[in-house]
């Protein structure tokens, strides 16, 4: 049989490219590509985590580095979990977390629903609404200290405009009952646009023809909202809650700028407390145990939540 | 039970007429098929009747009452959408039960179950009831979409190319099924398609639409045997009607510019000589492609014909249609 060059080419077994490049196998090349990220991950994530766990069983203080390190077992954990001050910060964090999520989801969804109604200039409104999110949290914190200022602050002025009374009769930051709400309001102002954007993506993913089908199926607007809009936006909404939850568990900058954790310890969130233990009181072993407890909490909550999220998506 | 009347309906989108002064009366219990190419205004007509769009001018009446200002929900019409429009987060069962759960109908759960399973049985999707609507093939989705309209008993069914994405066998089955459901229930159906076989087999009335205008409205037989113009004549019939210069066979009425010949209007055996260019054996019939004075035409002949390409066949017209320069029929 005589083959034309084209036929010969067609019959030839293709050589794996990698084998020709300086004798490296596919596997070796794969490792070379992945190695830098594995190294980075080990160096900045995994190693510190293991080291933190190790330190959490010691009385190590980083400003007394020459002192002998003593292993003290679970004593750090015991002290933390029985410390009522720490439970106070946990409560403050829970209050902050729950209320920011509730408010941001409700307001964010409502705004997205309104923006999604086709009206003139809704693009402009979207841009205006999204602006707070683009600012630095430290700037926002600073900015709200002025808004909350009892004598000259806009916030007090607006509230008393509706309720009556003297604007300087209350101080959002100075009052132990109001301060936890002051940080909730500031964070909601800043991050509701984020929830809105994600909800808007969800709403825009629902084709008009589904609503038209529902119209013909004689579903009222109310029923369309609950049986079509809400279930189809829910996976998006849950994702937004996950992002906001993780972010706000770590909340530091905005609150430090706004209240510095006060008055008293009423707005001392766990991350602020942890930073004081670690880098003001230099109780390294103790704060390592503290960090491990927070890590386990966030990790546990997040994994339960992600499981629920996947269930919703499968439905 | 409903007699539907479309009265002088016009609708334009961005200055272009989608519907131009369309009027028709759909008798109670009729199966009306709107036939026309893409952009003829078929879907727009359905949307006017359903209430999803409002006409710029004109009115839709059911049993003599105007529907103007009524929402789709208030109109009690069921619509099958071309793009299915299933509820993606619901199961097939929930999709089918959705219209029955309307507070306007007050159907009990047992009734819903009975009705849903009966429809699912008819459409051969009973084994898919627990699947999510998005986990179906295109044909299955289309059947669910049809089923969602069939579960309830509206005054009027509106169907927008409901069989277009089914395979040939299922399409043939469902054609018969839809027709018998309609005949049994006496429901009024307004049905859109560009498939002339669907029009011929199911319709009691056919409306031929072109560029937003209703060209002709009548029974399929009427339109086939007595078309008002070239356009209506060429919408029905397979192979298509041959349109040739009017004087090709000699004598033509004054004003006629073209002659229209359906296969059965071509008498074989005497007349002008034509060359056979191609023979297609389709089993039950054989198609002849002929060339006559440089004009191509197609006709049908005996299934067991001995003719082959290159042969000569004599043909002459028999009761042909004549059309004027504008394409209108000359009697």
How would you characterize this protein structure?
The complex is a heterodimer of chains A (315) and B (331). Chain A has 14 helices and no strands. The relative contact order of chain A is 0.12. Chain A is mainly alpha-helical and 315 residues long. Chain A folds into two domains: 5-55, no CATH class; 82-313, MetI-like fold (Orthogonal Bundle). Chain A has helices at 5-11, 17-20, 26-55, 75-81, 84-116, 122-130, 137-147, 154-163, 179-204, 208-216, 221-249, 253-258, 270-279, 284-314. The N and C termini of chain A lie far apart (60 Å). The longest helix of chain A has 33 residues, at 84-116. In chain A, helix 9 (179-204) crosses helix 11 and helix 13 packs antiparallel against helix 14 (284-314). With 331 residues, chain B is α+β, with helices and mostly antiparallel strands. Chain B has two domains: 4-234, 3-Layer(aba) Sandwich (Rossmann fold), CATH 3.40.50.300; 242-330, Nucleic acid-binding proteins (OB fold (Dihydrolipoamide Acetyltransferase, E2P)). In chain B, 25% of the residues lie in helices and 33% in strands. Chain B has helices at 42-50, 72-75, 92-97, 109-122, 138-150, 168-185, 196-202, 220-225, 230-235; strands at residues 4-13, 16-26, 31-35, 57-62, 65-66, 77-80, 156-160, 188-193, 205-210, 213-218, 242-245, 258-261, 266-281, 286-292, 295-301, 312-317, 321-323, 329-330. In chain B, the strands form four sheets. In chain B, strands 6-7-8-3-9-10 form a six-stranded mixed β-sheet, with helices on both faces. In chain B, strands 2-1-4-5 form a four-stranded antiparallel β-sheet, with helices on one face. A four-stranded antiparallel β-sheet of chain B has the order 11-12-17-18. Chain B is globular. The model of chain B has no long low-confidence stretch (mean pLDDT 88). The A-B interface holds A 207, 209-210, 212-220, 223, 227-228, 231-232, 315 and B 50-52, 71-73, 76-79, 81, 83, 85-89, 98-99, 102-105, 132, 148, 158.
């Amino acid at each position: 049989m005589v083959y034309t060059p084209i036929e010969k080419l067609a019959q030839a077994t293709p050589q794996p490219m990698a084998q020709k490049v300086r004798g490296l196998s596919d596997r070796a090349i794969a490792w070379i590509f992945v190695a830098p990220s594995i190294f980075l991950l080990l160096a900045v994530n995994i190693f510190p985590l293991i080291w933190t766990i190790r330190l959490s069983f010691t009385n190590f203080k980083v400003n007394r580095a020459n002192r002998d390190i003593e292993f003290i077992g679970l004593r750090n954990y015991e002290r933390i979990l029985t410390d009522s001050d720490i439970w106070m910060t946990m409560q403050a964090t829970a209050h902050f977390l729950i209320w920011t999520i509730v408010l941001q989801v409700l307001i964010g969804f409502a705004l997205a629903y309104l923006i999604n109604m086709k009206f003139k200039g809704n693009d402009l409104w979207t841009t205006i609404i999204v602006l707070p999110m683009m600012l630095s949290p430290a700037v926002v914190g600073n900015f709200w200290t002025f808004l909350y200022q009892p004598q000259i602050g806009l916030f007090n002025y607006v509230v008393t405009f509706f309720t009556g009374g003297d604007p300087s009769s209350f101080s959002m930051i100075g009052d132990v009952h109001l301060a936890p709400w002051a940080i909730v309001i500031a964070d909601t102002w800043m991050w509701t646009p984020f929830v809105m954007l994600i909800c808007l993506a969800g709403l825009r993913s629902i084709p008009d023809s589904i609503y038209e089908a529902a119209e013909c199926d004689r579903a009222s607007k109310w029923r369309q909202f609950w049986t079509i809009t809400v279930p189809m936006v829910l996976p998006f909404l849950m994702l937004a809650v996950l992002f906001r939850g993780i972010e706000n568990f770590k909340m530091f900058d905005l609150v430090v700028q706004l209240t510095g954790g006060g008055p008293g310890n009423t707005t001392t969130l766990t991350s602020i407390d942890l930073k004081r233990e670690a880098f003001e009181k230099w109780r390294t072993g103790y704060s390592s145990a503290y960090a491990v407890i927070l890590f386990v909490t966030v990790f546990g909550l997040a994994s339960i939540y992600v499981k629920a999220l996947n269930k919703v998506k499968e439905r | 039970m409903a007699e539907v009347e479309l009265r002088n309906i016009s609708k334009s989108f961005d200055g272009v007429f989608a519907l131009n002064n369309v009027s028709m009366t759909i008798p109670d219990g009729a199966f009306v098929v709107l036939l026309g190419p893409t952009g003829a205004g078929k879907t727009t007509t359905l949307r006017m009747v359903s209430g999803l769009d409002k006409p710029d001018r004109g009115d839709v009446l059911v049993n003599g009452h105007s529907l103007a200002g009524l929402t789709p929900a208030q109109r009690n019409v069921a619509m099958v959408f071309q793009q299915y429009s299933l509820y993606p987060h619901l199961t097939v069962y929930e999709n089918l039960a959705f219209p029955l759960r309307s507070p306007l109908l007050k159907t009990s759960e047992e009734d819903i179950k009975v009705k849903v399973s009966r429809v699912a049985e008819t459409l051969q999707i009973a084994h898919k009831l627990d699947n999510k609507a998005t986990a179906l093939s295109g044909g299955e989705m289309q059947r669910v979409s049809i089923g969602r309209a069939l579960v309830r008993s509206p005054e009027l069914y509106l169907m927008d190319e409901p069989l277009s994405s089914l395979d040939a066998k299922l399409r043939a089955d469902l054609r018969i099924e839809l027709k018998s459901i309609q005949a049994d229930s006496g429901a009024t159906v307004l049905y859109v398609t560009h498939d002339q076989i669907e029009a011929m087999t199911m319709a009691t009335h056919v409306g031929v639409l072109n560029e937003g205008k209703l060209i002709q409205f009548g029974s399929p037989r009427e339109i086939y045997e007595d078309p008002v113009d070239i356009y209506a004549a060429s919408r029905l019939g397979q192979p298509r009607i041959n349109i040739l210069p009017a004087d090709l066979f000699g004598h033509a009425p004054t004003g006629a510019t073209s002659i229209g010949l359906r296969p059965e209007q071509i008498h074989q055996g005497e007349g002008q000589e034509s060359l056979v260019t191609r023979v297609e054996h389709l089993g039950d019939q054989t198609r002849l492609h002929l060339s006559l004075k440089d004009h191509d035409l197609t006709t049908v002949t005996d299934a067991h014909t001995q003719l082959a390409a290159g042969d000569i066949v004599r043909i002459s017209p028999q009761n042909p249609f004549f059309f004027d320069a504008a394409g209108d029929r000359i009697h």
